[in-house]
Amino acid sequence: MQFSAKQIAAFINAQIEGDENTIVTNFNNIEAAQQGDLSFLSNPKYEEFLYTSKASLVIVNKRLQLKQNVLATLLRVDDAYAAFATLLKIYQDLQTQGLNGIEEHSHIAASAKIDENVYVGSFAYVSDNVVIGKGSKIYPQVFIGANVKVGENTIIYAGAKIYKDCVIGSNVIIHAGAVIGADGFGFAPNADGTYQKIPQIGNVVIEDNVEIGANTTIDRATLNSTIVRKGVKIDNLVQIAHNAELGENTAIAAQAGVSGSTKIGKNVMIAGQAGIVGHIHIADQTIVTAQSGVAKSTSEKQIVSGSPAFEYTKNNRSNVVFKRLPELEKKILELEKLVKELSK
Fold this sequence. Notes:
Blueprint: E1 3-4, H1 5-12, E2 15-17, E3 23-24, E4 26-27, E5 37-41, H2 47-50, E6 57-61, E7 73-77, H3 80-96, E8 101-102, E9 107-108, E10 113-114, E11 119-120, E12 125-126, E13 131-132, E14 137-138, E15 143-144, E16 149-150, E17 155-156, E18 161-162, E19 167-168, E20 173-174, E21 179-182, E22 187-189, E23 195-197, E24 203-206, E25 211-212, E26 217-219, E27 225-228, E28 233-234, E29 239-240, E30 245-246, E31 251-252, E32 257-258, E33 263-264, E34 269-270, E35 275-276, E36 281-282, E37 287-288, E38 293-294, E39 303-305, E40 310-311, H4 312-323, H5 325-343
Parallel strand pairs: 4-5, 5-6, 6-7, 8-11, 9-12, 10-13, 11-14, 12-15, 13-16, 14-17, 15-18, 16-19, 17-20, 18-21, 19-24, 20-25, 21-26, 24-27, 25-28, 26-29, 27-30, 28-31, 29-32, 30-33, 31-34, 32-35, 33-36, 34-37, 35-38, 37-39
Antiparallel strand pairs: 1-3, 2-7, 22-23, 39-40
């Protein structure tokens, strides 16, 4: 890439402080940036690097008060982090503009409907009655099962598998190795100790503007639908079980698991390795901290922590007491001994 400060300022509605003709050809973080690099500063703890950075162009917040002179041209915006993300998205879109058409060795069923400007990579398999909206990109070795509907401008990266009857919205990103619509974990115990499989005849519905990380799995419902509402962001290696529902703009970090028939509210944040049991409801805007085990419903927004998880500050106080248990036990034993001596 090659852009001037003036061109980039137009993309992100920035105020230029320095030479508007400064040219950049690469992105880099502020610690490692060199001449010709574009970087950003949003976290105050990295401000010291602004004064030593060799970056040619740095995006900063408007409210930043400089403590020293800087060599770089500055672009001042309301939110430097969001502005930098916008530029990365523009750059990524430019890189993929040339991807179009059906590559050799892919399989497109005769009954499938492929809209304009769709890309299907080599060795992808598009089954009967699939519908793919315009501008979507299906990378090599993707499998799309029968009757699947994919919206517009959706990206499905290499090796992802979409089972039959699932519905994928527009502007969705599904990363490599993700599996959407595999059977939910449903088995009925028999009298002889064996298990009878319960057929999973529902589907998965993923609404618009969702991102699903690599090797994440979302199971199909036993009957109706497992639902991922619009704006949800799911990290790598996450398990969403059958009949679960994730509310709008919820974010789930890596290695977390949501059990069957659980309803997650809007704008919930679930940190890494957290586990949520089945058949409960998590209130809007709840935060579940890392490695927590949520065993009961929450009725209002709060931060929960621990296993079993409960209110964050109470959990912290409990941990303080827990660490002191050996010391407290010793004091109790001493008091018991003293009471016995006094009773004599």
